[in-house]
Amino acid sequence: MSPVFDVYVWVEPGDRDGSLSRFIDRYVDVEQPGDPRFPAFVRTFVSYDPAHGDADALAELRRDDAAERAFSLYLRAIGYYGAIVTVTEEGAFVLGLSLDGPLNVSETTREAADLMAALMAEFAATGGIAGVELAPPQSAAEWRDAYVLLRTVRAGTR
User: Fold this and answer.
1) Cβ distance 138 to 70 under 8 Å?
2) SS3 content of the chain, % helix, strand, coil (to 5)
3) pLDDT tens digit string along 23-80?
């Protein structure tokens, strides 16, 4: 199995109205999402109608005990190797897609840059990052400090 090239965009809490449901509709295989906690995630963050036990199910996704709010959900994607949705410590979303195998690094890097620009425009994201086998940042500090091959910010943001 070749490594994947991960592309992420940062969607601010105030800018995310509808972004998550659009991302799921367009990029996630909702019939076979690949993680049994996906329905709990949708009820909590899309429908805003969590069921009893959903908070506990989502807490299982936390990377470690130090995480208070942050977690990542790895899902099957439509048209891509994978889809990743992260809720950050600050309440922002990091939306990600994985490209299969950077066999031709320059071609994959170009594809990742195009995908990053498209995702930023589609979801009004304030920034984008990409790299090989890149874990999704779960806080603004992790986003800022991530070692990446590509990084961009939307004009007028920091």
Assistant:
1) yes
2) 30, 25, 45
3) 999 999 999 999 999 999 999 999 889 999 999 999 899 987 777 889 999 999 999 9
